[in-house]
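If you are new to this repository, start here. Below is one unmodified record pulled from the training split, so you can see the exact layout before writing a loader.
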Amino acid sequence: MSQVNVNIKEINEKIQSESSFVDLINIEMKKVIVGQQHLIDGLLIGLLSDGHILLEGVPGLAKTLAIKTISGIIDAKFNRIQFTPDLLPADLIGTMIYSQKKEEFQVKQGPIFGNFILADEINRSPAKVQSALLEAMQEKQVTIGVNSFKLPNPFLVMATQNPIEQEGTYPLPEAQTDRFLLKVVLDYPKKEEEALIIRENLGQNFPTANTILKPEDIVKARNVVKEVYMDEKIENYILDIVFATRYPERYKLEKYSSLINYGGSPRASISMAKAAKAYAFIKRRGYVIPEDVRAVCYDVMRHRIGLSYEAEAENITTEDIITGILDNVEVP
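And here is the target side for that same chain:
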């Protein structure tokens, strides 16, 4: 047991020294983004876990500004793609163009070739575009003609969807939402935060963040995050939470059996473990505690639970179900 303790102490010291840049990113982000700490944490978890983020919130909550700012801090290539019903896969990944000078077809790469991709209003584009984005998200490559091209590293898709307008939208298929590590739901800022937002926007110079990192620093940090210690009890806690969405009756949650159509896939368990490790790293700790799992649980699970018609008729949300599961599953 003492050997494990020594190792944890070493890991903890290593993580504390390696995670110092997290505080610097937070300082730079807060120069531009007022409040929205949950969004900043979500972006950092996505970056450190090599996962994509789905953001839901009404327009004007600084979703675009946040990802643009973090890409500037990391000196990474940022591209914004506005998804519309007439968008074609070629508009996203690129196409083959005939060069008269060379008398051959040449590849013209699309805006997907960047480190940070903002897929704005992702649910406005048809299935063809969704499937092109799906390959990029999952395989970290795109296929143009007969050739496949690797995407840059790090590669992070942050997709936004507007929960209000449903006209002219295509709901994301379950296979695609499952590819997102987190689904972060944004709320309005507090009154004092909004007062500060007004002042900043009316000031002479809008604040900007400094570039303090390189993309390779993030790739290096990801390897360190993998070293964060996760006890078997924490692993079992994650499994219990995910299994409770599939077999509620095993966890004395029979009332949920008729409310859930399908539960979290094995990808949900992997995502929760990855996100919990990244959250511990952000908190500058070398080991995962149950509070880390609970902190990321809603964002990891809310888009992975399928609700039945009965649940929708009773106005029961996935958040209600996650709360019920967390209240009932035994904490290690």
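Two things worth knowing about this chain: The mean pLDDT is 84. The chain has two domains: 32-201, 224-328.
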